[in-house]
Design a protein that fits this description.
The chain is α+β, with helices and mostly antiparallel strands and 248 residues long. 55% of the residues lie in helices and 16% in strands.
């Protein structure tokens, strides 16, 4: 794993530290998008700061001698963050790789430091790094648990979006039974009679802005008989497509 992604010492501020070229990260992750746009988006999304998390170099290439390219070199910590943000298997590999390099550097520092104070500082930094990693892992676990919970809630909501079993909307029942068209005021009376006979169950079908009432078939049949009896009393008779006044 030591040769996974090249890295080299670079001047950053008043220190010389190990950095990694952003182009190597881009290539290893297999990003198809343009490097320049991608690297700027990583810096913005990760809130990375120049001369702390990365350093910029200007390089004149042979193909464009008058137009230098901008090269971004990241610290190991910033490279870890970029790998984590990618949320891919390759990204996790990048993150683990630079975590290992960081630990190796800290262990080397502990072994080569001569004074107890410097050794204690290196140990404290290593402990802090481990704690930060633990916090990051717990945050990802919490986010994953929240995602699973949201998916379960969405599945439950989808399962619940089923109409009441064995019950029908008055209008749908009329069409299914092939009943003649009811005038608006009579349809309203039909609905009122359904409500009088049975407490409805409600469900909002697709395309509806509000819940609709559902009733059992016996209630619908009784309400229809009662309502149409009133129409017959008023001298109406059923015909295809509706009702008309009876001929004398």
């Amino acid at each position: 794993m030591s040769a996974l992604i090249p890295h080299a010492a670079r001047q950053m501020g008043d220190q010389v530290i190990q950095t990694v070229d952003g182009r190597h990260i881009h290539a290893f992750l297999g990003i198809a998008k343009d490097y320049s746009d991608w690297v700027k988006r990583q810096i913005k999304s990760g809130q990375l700061i120049e001369d702390r998390d990365f350093v910029i170099f200007y390089h004149k290439g042979e193909n464009h001698p008058g137009r230098p390219s901008i090269e971004y070199h990241f610290t190991f910590r910033a490279a870890e963050h970029i790998g984590m943000m990618s949320r891919t298997a390759k990204g996790r590999e990048v993150r683990e790789y630079f975590l290992d390099l960081e630990e190796q550097a800290q262990q080397h520092a502990i072994q080569t430091k001569a004074t107890p104070a410097e050794a204690a500082l290196a140990i404290a930094q290593a402990v802090l790094s481990i704690e930060r990693r633990q916090v990051a892992i717990e945050a990802r676990q919490d986010a994953h648990a929240a995602q699973l919970s949201a998916q379960a809630a969405a599945l439950a909501a989808l399962t619940a979006r089923q109409p009441p079993v064995g019950k029908h909307r008055p209008e749908a029942w009329l069409r299914a039974q092939g009943k003649p068209y009811l005038p608006r005021e009579v349809l309203a009376a039909f609905r009122r009679e359904c409500r009088r006979l049975e407490a409805p169950e409600t469900f909002r079908p697709d395309g509806y802005d509000y819940p609709a009432a559902y009733y059992g078939p016996e209630t619908l049949a009784r309400a229809y008989e009662t309502t149409t009896r009133q129409l017959s009393f008023l001298g109406q008779e059923p015909v295809p497509g509706g009702w008309r006044r009876q001929r004398s």
